[in-house]
Amino acid sequence: MPESQPDASFSRWHAWLLGAWFCASFGVVFFAYDLQHVAAGWPVSYWFAAQGSVLIFILVVALFAWIANRREGPAAEVDPDYLVYTRRIHGRFFAYVVLFLLFLLVLALAERAGLRKIWVGAIFLFATVFLYALIGIYDRTSKASEYYVAGRRIPAVYNGMAVAADWMSAASFISMAGGLYLQGFSGSGSQPGGLAYVLGWTGGFCLVALLVAPYLRQMNLYTVPDFFGARYGGRWPRIIAAWSAVLCSFTYVVAQIYGVGLITSRLTGVQFEIGILLGLGGVLVCSFLGGMRAVTWTQVTQYVVLILAFLIPVSWLAYKQLGNPLAPFAYGQQLPKIAQLETRLMASPAEQEVIHEYAKRSSDYARKLENVTESLEHEKKALYDEIQRLTRTHADESEIVAARRALAALPRDEASARERWTRAMTDNMDRAKPLGGMPLHTRPFAGDPDGTRVEQKAFETSRRNFLALMFCLMVGTAGLPHLLTRFYTVRSVTEARNSVTWSLFFIALLYLAAPALAVLVKFEIMGHLVGQRFDELPSWIAQWARMDSSLISVSDINGDQILQFAELKLGPDIVMLATPEIGGLPYVVSGLVAAGGLAAALSTADGLLLTIGNALAHDLFYRGESDRAAVVRQVMLSKFALLLVALLAAYVAAQRPADILFLVSASFSLAGAAFVPVMILGIFWSGVTRPAAVAGMLSGLGLTLYYMLVNLPSVRVFFGLRGSGLWFDIEPISAGVFGVTAGVLVTLLVSFFTQSHKRLA
To answer: Over the stretch 88-104, which tens digit does the pLDDT of each residue have?
Structure first.
């Protein structure tokens, strides 16, 4: 296949706008510790990281679209049929929004009239999934242009909504606010997080707008691997890109299906595994039957559900606490109150008792690990003797059963005992810290740049990891295939630029509210929940704990029957899902939140499964046939590949491999390292050669995978590796830093070498 390249040039506007993007992200973060003075009640660095930088990113993208579109001259005359089509879409969308609001009102009135909660949840689940399935059936197609790119006639504003729904996955909707609740500004110590997700997942759209989306749309392709085949020629660049798309998309989709199971089981009360299958049905009907056309309009409807589901409870909580429903503008009032509560909790004697008990438990596990075999035998003997004593003294049957369960729950062998006790020791060690190991909410980084050598190292490590994670999320955004494919669905390059602007605007509605939600929930927990008696705790705590103890757990560590902050453990996935119950809202809002989380997970899963199916069928088995029968066969092959991958992803998700946020973040590192260096260099520099592209993709992806795998605890134990294995103290979640760097360097070096070789020949 001959090589081709988009018409791309790097202008001074690119440079100025990228400079503004860089200053608003990396510049603000690097100097965050020095920007802590307060203005209008907000710590300046916190406000920029949570809101100011996002607004600058929107301005950068909108300004670039306006400048580039003006330089291209007046737009071509719009087809009258397209105008009629657009007006019809506007009418249908308006009717859908009105009907959905009426649906919410009817359900709220029905609940007030006595409709049981289980029915409210079931109606939300089946009504929304039925709607998505109906769209999939209505938009079914076997035409290649409709299946792969929705006929290239999606209006920019609706493509923006679809991109936003596709983008705001279960990680954004379910986990991000929880991550901000737990990690504050920047995470704790070497664990990056917090506002890195807000900055990374919005700032990446500046790269998409300025460096990628318009130039891919210019080439009239179907998939991202198509670009590598068209730009570099031959099969290897396309094959490597296709398998890379499968890898990063599969990692991503497992997290979405896990979220589907979590929410569906909460809505209906069914088992987690059955919840996965119920939600997966809605995904498959849309993507299997209608491809990109059905997925696009499904995602538009899902965006309405998820944005209302997020904004209604956070607005209610803001109104309840502050008298102002505009949460992103008002929640700064709670930041100094949270700082006072943090100080009070750290000085509380009862909290100190709990911390001391966690430290003691950690030490006990450390002693057990000194001689695992002997400790395991000792525990078994002690429990066996206790059962014998209880039996001889005719103790209560419940005590005997409890002792037998404790014996049965002991690790089966030395290896499992070592793994379990190591995990328990680490968990107790982490919780044996002030605030249960959570950092101060507005503190930029751990440690102190003016403190001891240890504190200075902690500060540098924390800041370095924050910057690394933010870099990976931004670069990964510019390389995720399921996102970039969406910009093939609009009519022109101009529409592609406008579509990126709309996308970031719709995404920002949620991303500006997520930090507000984290602050409002933290104030509610610290100020109202902590200090209650255990027998007076709200019922939602026990309900969620029974469903999954990793979501929420409470235990009376110091035995005073009063809940201390360190005795409450919340997982990141619970904060958003439990917000309506925390705020005392009607259950219909809880159902709406769960439906919103389901919409977020399903919309992203739709796009990801479609990307994987297309990569397997269109890119790996592509032979260039153009006759009708061959195209239909290719579309059918994509559908069946999608079905098989969906079932495999459901099986992996049922094993609960890791938390949602980690899985999603890992996929960004993989996508950034595999695609972005070779893609952007190939767009703007004609000197990149085919061998350089192959070497750049393999080196970037290979180094990223190696760094992630070699730092897995199980891998290090299996191979007997000692030490941390970290380079520059960068955590594995940010492995893309090394992969992207390697990809750029290898691509440049091999390009220069192969060009020189050609000239000499």
So the answer is: 999 999 999 999 999 99
